[in-house]
């Protein structure tokens, strides 16, 4: 069967142009700083994000973890949104690798209120850990691909500066945020000291993410990347696809956002499926299926039988993600199939 794969934008395949660029890439040993293609990718990323330096990493998870390690010391505390990727899907890495503990804040559509952040910052007290980092996620995955409003980002950053605390942005999908806001990524990145963004999601590169920040931050982060086995030698073959991802792919993300809206509007009309349409801003849709009287796993299995792949989103939610491999006609086909499965008999 030819599946319509709406599990994640991580399933995107490299374009022909990326494959050609990878084949022809000029490479060297990146641990010696001698891979011209990696250097080109890093320089391009730093410039695009308005930062001094950049570092190519194996994955978004590796990039986030290295940033936490670089900003903190063991025994510190970091502030995170309670459903953020770093706390939910990174295998407890902040505890194991950085030795830090998490102070979680409930956000609204993924955005933490700066007054809640202020209240969570620790006092200079002999009993308390030091608050050494604030992490924001933009777009916010589990909140439904929501974009953090610019005034909240700015207020968070200014608050952090008052307390001399760095801000890290998990910008795995920052280009989706920039597309939604219709601004360049450097406008968003200015409210963070470090940003991690992924090349291998909506931008279609096969492997890799990038961390951007100051020169001294990146120099320190490079040692942690090496420690974690991320010294990749002739990684220019991967960076070559990343350069095309950065330069060519952001301009088409609007298509994914339009497809997500079309899908969400159709899903909303199916009795028992609830979507907060205000959260449908980019390429992710989180649906509440509590009223369908079935688990997220049962729901996904029913769709799978009809040739549609999706992922659970935790509890009674399921997630649909649009991307380069999904055309408008796939959305129409998927909606027809889903409508045919769920009729009124499932609703409580
Ligand atoms: N997210 C994946 C899964 O891990 C859940 C997905 O399918 O959405 N930050 C954010 C906000 C992410 O959504 C992800 C990946 C990462 C970091 C980690 O990136 P990778 O998968 O490259 O380690």
UniProtKB/TrEMBL annotation:
GO terms for molecular function: L-allo-threonine aldolase activity. Coiled coil: none annotated. One of its GO terms (cellular component) is cytosol. Keywords: Lyase, Pyridoxal phosphate. Gene3D superfamilies: Aspartate Aminotransferase, domain 1, Type I PLP-dependent aspartate aminotransferase-like (Major domain). SUPFAM superfamilies: PLP-dependent transferases. It holds the Pfam family Beta_elim_lyase. The modification N6-(pyridoxal phosphate)lysine is found at residue 201. Residues 5-288 form the Aromatic amino acid beta-eliminating lyase/threonine aldolase domain. Its cofactor is pyridoxal 5'-phosphate. GO terms for biological process: glycine biosynthetic process; L-threonine catabolic process. Belongs to the threonine aldolase family. This is Threonine aldolase. It comes from Tepidanaerobacter syntrophicus.
């Amino acid at each position: 069967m030819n599946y319509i794969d709406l599990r994640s934008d991580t399933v995107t395949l490299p374009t022909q142009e990326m494959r050609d660029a990878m084949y022809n890439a000029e490479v060297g040993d990146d641990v010696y700083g001698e891979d011209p293609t990696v250097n080109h990718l890093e320089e391009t990323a730093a410039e695009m994000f308005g930062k001094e330096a950049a570092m190519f990493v194996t994955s978004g998870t590796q990039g986030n973890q290295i940033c936490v390690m670089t900003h903190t010391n063991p025994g510190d505390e970091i502030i995170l949104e309670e459903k953020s990727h770093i706390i939910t899907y990174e295998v407890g890495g902040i505890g194991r690798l950085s030795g830090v503990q998490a102070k979680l804040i409930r956000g609204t559509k993924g955005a933490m209120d700066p007054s809640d952040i202020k209240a969570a910052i620790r006092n200079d007290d002999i009993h308390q850990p030091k608050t050494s980092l604030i992490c924001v996620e933009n777009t916010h995955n589990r909140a439904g691909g929501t974009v953090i409003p610019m005034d909240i980002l700015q207020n968070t950053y200014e608050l952090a500066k008052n307390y001399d605390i760095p801000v890290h942005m998990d910008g795995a999908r920052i280009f989706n945020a920039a597309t939604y806001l219709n601004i360049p990524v450097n406008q968003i990145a200015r409210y963070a000291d470090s940003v991690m963004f992924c090349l291998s999601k909506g931008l279609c590169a096969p492997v890799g993410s990038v961390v951007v920040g100051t020169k001294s931050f990146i120099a320190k982060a490079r040692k942690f990347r090496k420690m974690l086995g991320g010294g990749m030698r002739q990684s220019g073959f991967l960076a070559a696809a990343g350069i095309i991802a950065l330069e060519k792919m952001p301009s088409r993300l609007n298509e994914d956002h339009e497809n997500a809206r079309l899908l969400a509007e159709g899903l909303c009309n199916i009795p028992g499926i609830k979507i907060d349409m205000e959260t449908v801003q980019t390429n992710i849709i989180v649906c509440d299926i509590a009223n369908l009287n079935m688990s997220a796993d049962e729901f996904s299995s029913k769709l799978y039988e009809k040739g549609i792949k999706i992922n659970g989103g935790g509890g009674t939610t399921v997630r649909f993600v649009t991307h380069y491999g999904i055309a408008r006609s796939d959305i129409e086909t998927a909606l027809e199939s889903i409508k045919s499965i769920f009729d009124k008999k499932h609703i409580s």
